[in-house]
Amino acid sequence: MQTTMWLTTTEAVDHADRARQALTAGAARIRASTLRSWVTRGHLTATGLSEDGRPLYRLADVAKAEKATRSRALRLLGVKTSPCGVGPGEQDPAPWAPLTGA
User: Fold this and answer.
1) Average pLDDT over residues 90-96
2) Which of 1, 41, 61, 85 could anchor a disulfide with 80, C-beta 3.0 to 4.6 Å?
3) How far apart are CA 34 and CA 45, in angstroms?
C-alpha cells in the first residue's frame, strides 16, 4: 500500500530545493516564487487544502515538477545537464582527479 505524503508550500519548496542543491552542488535554488511559477505553468497542481486553507502538494508531484524543470534551470545557470557534467561529444578531462583545496 502506497501512502501519500502531503506538503505545504514551504515543505514543498524545502524538498525541491534540497534535491536541486544536491544535483547542482549548490548552484541552483528553489524558492516559493519558483513553486508558484510551476503551478501557474501547469507543472504542479495543489491536490488539497490545509486546515487553514493553504494549498497542499503531493511529494511525488513536487519531485516530478522539479525534474521537469531542472534541465532548463541548469541551462540558464550554465550548468551542463548530462551525466558527470560532460556534454555530448566531450571527454571528461579528469574523471578521477583528486579534490584540491585547503
Assistant:
1) 47
2) 85
3) 13
Residue 44: Cβ-neighbour burial (10 angstroms; 0-12, 13-18, 19+): buried
Q: Which amino acid is at 23?
A: L
Angle at 79 between CA 81 and CA 84, to 5 degrees: 50
pLDDT of res. 23? 75
Binned at pLDDT 50, 70 and 90, residue 21 comes out as: confident
| Number of neighbours of residue 60 by Cβ within 10 angstroms | 11
Question: 79 in helix, strand or coil?
Answer: coil
3-state DSSP assignment of residue 57: strand
Give the H/E segment covering residue 89.
none
Rounded Cα gap, residues 97 and 99, in angstroms: 7
